[in-house]
Amino acid sequence: MRVGIFGGGQLGMMLGEAAKKLGIACRCFDSSSDAPAKKVCELIVGSYDDEEAVRDFAEGMNVITYEFENVPTKAIEAVMKDHKVHPPLKALQTAQDRLHEKTLFQKLSIPTPLFADISSKEDLENAVKKIGLPCVLKTRRMGYDGKGQIVLKSNDEIEKAWGAMNNQALILEQFIPFDRELSILAVRTEGGTVSFYPLIENIHRNGILHKSTAPALNTKGPLTDQAQQAAMKIMSELLYVGVLTIEFFEKDGILIANEMAPRVHNSGHWSIEGAVTSQFENHLRAVTGMELGSIEITQPSVMFNIIGSVPDLSSIENNPHIFIHLYGKESRAGRKLGHVTMVSPSEELIARMERILE
Ligand code: AMP
Fold first, then answer.
1. 148 lines ligand 1 (CB under 6 A)
2. Measuring from atom 17 of ligand 1, which residue has the nearest CA?
3. Helices within 7-50 (DSSP H only)
4. What does the alpha-carbon distance between residue 172 and residue 139 come to, in Å, rounded to a whole number?
5. Whose CA is nearest to atom 11 of ligand 1?
6. What is the CATH number that goes with domain 180-357?
């Protein structure tokens, strides 16, 4: 079995690691010859605009998948004629545009922040009146890790925000003063079998995921039901195959959907050590038509991202409860360079990791 993956970042690398276990050969396509996935996958370096290169990459693959949302849809369309692509193009197109994403949530009666399409300064002024302050002005496309968004706290800030962002398609969203941020990872096969990992609690710093706790505390019952129903509705609507992630704000017992990712996700990295079958393995199982593996949790886990630069990790290196994953990327502010998962973590261990990361 051969799987082609658009993108060769750390998610591609971890898909490649899981593929080895399953006897699947992976080939990644990336614009950089330094892509982390090259450690474990065949790497094809090329431009997504080069249709011939994209087709050559797909040649001989049984199925094509992707590991980042901003894969140009033209590249997917170029390989769709001759190859199966999972998850479906519609899922990618929806996730690439916050307006389409929130419109889908609304259509499926999944709670989501109030939102408005913004094409002019008048639109923005009217939408701020309707949605209320505070609110968040975001780019519709290419936003990730909190990039491309400005929180508006007063009417005086409208002018400046408009000036800074008006060269792109925009959406205005209600600001949710959430109690917690939670995510769910669901996986669906072509035949419609669905498994859900437990709800995960996520803490972001400067818009970037800092820490994920799995399972999130006190989420059994209504919260889990809401998350699973939302995932089920989206997957059925899109005839989805593979892992789907939905990120929510929890406010007064209600889950409000912020965004979806049609791919394996940073908040599921703990599953490599903390679940019987990792998100990476189950994604590959789903897209290649294999039966899903058990999503049962083996041990509670906490995952920390290593961002910007790699700290001295020597004091935790030999701890049997700690698993360090480094992606081999060069240091850069705000860049995800690796992650550390602690299984059966103690308060002391978590505090130690926080200190190391400080
Ligand atoms: P996003 O790029 O939409 O995932 O946003 C990154 C982070 O910004 C989220 O994880 C939240 O912590 C925060 N954020 C984004 N949108 C909102 C919102 N409408 N209300 C409150 N916080 C938000």
1. no
2. 175
3. 10-22
4. 9
5. 207
6. 3.30.470.20
Please compute Rg for the chain using Cα positions.
20
Output the six-digit token pair for 284: 């590959």
Q: Taking the model in full, what pTM does it have?
A: 0.97
Supply the CATH classification number for the domain 2-85: 3.40.50.20
Cβ atoms within 10 Å of 312's Cβ, excluding its own: 8
Would the CB of 136 count as within 6 Å of ligand 1?
yes
Q: Give the fold, CATH level 3, of 114-174.
A: Dna Ligase; domain 1 (3.30.1490)
Q: How far apart are CA 229 and CA 176, in angstroms?
A: 21
Spacing, Cα 350 to ligand 1 middle (Å)? 24
Q: How far is residue 100 from each of residues 22, 92, 166, 171, measured CA to CA in Å?
A: 35, 11, 19, 10
Q: How far apart are CA 142 and CA 93, in angstroms?
A: 12
- Which of left, alpha, beta for 326 (phi over 0: left; psi -120 to 50: alpha)? beta
pLDDT in tens, the chain (358 residues): 999 999 999 999 999 999 999 999 999 999 999 999 999 999 999 999 999 999 999 999 999 999 999 999 999 999 999 999 999 999 999 999 999 999 999 999 999 999 999 999 999 999 999 999 999 999 999 876 667 899 999 999 999 999 999 989 999 999 999 999 999 999 999 999 999 999 999 999 988 999 999 999 999 999 999 999 999 999 999 999 999 999 999 999 999 999 999 999 999 999 999 999 999 999 999 999 999 999 999 999 999 999 999 999 999 999 999 999 999 999 999 999 999 999 998 999 999 999 999 8
311 Cβ closer than 6 Å to some ligand 1 atom: no
Listed by start position, the domains of the chain span 2-85, 114-174, 180-357
Distance CA 164, CA 158 (A): 10
